[in-house]
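hi support,

uploading two proteins for the ticket. first:
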Amino acid sequence: MRGSSGTLVEIATQALLANPTASLAEVATAAGVSRTTLHRLYPTRRALLVAVATEAVDRVEHAYTNAGLAAPGEEAEAALRRLLTALIPLGPQLEFIHRERGLDEEHALHARFDALDDLVVDLVKRGQRARVLRSDLAAWWIVSSLNGAVYGAWESIELGRLAPRDAPGMVLSTLLDGIRTGPADS
């Protein structure tokens, strides 16, 4: 079901992020549909939460698949740039997955989402072996930093501080180059 400002699930995502305790009636109002219509599609609040999370994980998996993370280590930077470009616009979905405590028992959904980090860890390790990424940092830490930076970039875009097209380069530059000044900056 698609409305003028997005699918019902996209609107539900926004409504639930704005108010994590929103009722089905409040979500229906935000989506511009009747409570009966929403209830017919999602009989319980939990069913709606699972639908929102499932779509979020589907979209995130799609981004990871399209980023070409199986690239050789020499191409790690380009693959990370593709991933960042695809992930940053998915900030609301990523936030929902991380924030919604009502999904803690959805183990299969969490396993799908957690498996995605393994793809990036493997890419980072290949990049480290190819000596294009720092090998003195644990790959899991680099991926954790990447995830945090993606969220920070999305939040900065939402606040109007960062242009969407600039975000992937800024995140990648910060991760690859750090924040220490180099010889040219002195």
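and the second one:
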Amino acid sequence: MHTPDIMLSTTDYDRLDALLRAQKTTSMATETLRQEIERSTLVAPEQLPPHVVSMNSTVRFRFAEGKTSTLTLVYPKDLDQSGQQISMLAPVGSALLGLSIGDVINWPLPGGNMSTITIEEIIYQPERAGAFHR
């Protein structure tokens, strides 16, 4: 399957890069995130298209099995226990970052099987709402 292109605002890139540099150890999650942000196309926050998942976006996505989830992508320090957020260091979190509505990605499930995730809707995107430096 084709890996979708990803786009990040320069603000998100700078903050994620600083977060990764501050990590004391490297994990699979941090290495995956590093690879994702290194392959991204960077744009000024004001130029980020409204259909792209950025940090603090609320996204509805569907698994191939039909289950849908709606989560807000947050930095680890902002994660609460509501169950309505996902850390960008979580595997699904790093996978969502920078994708566009309609993008489909392969995703490993527990037990070794693969599924796909489709981005269905970006309910809230800070840049679309004019919050360029949140």
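thanks. also noticed: The chain has a mean pLDDT of 88.
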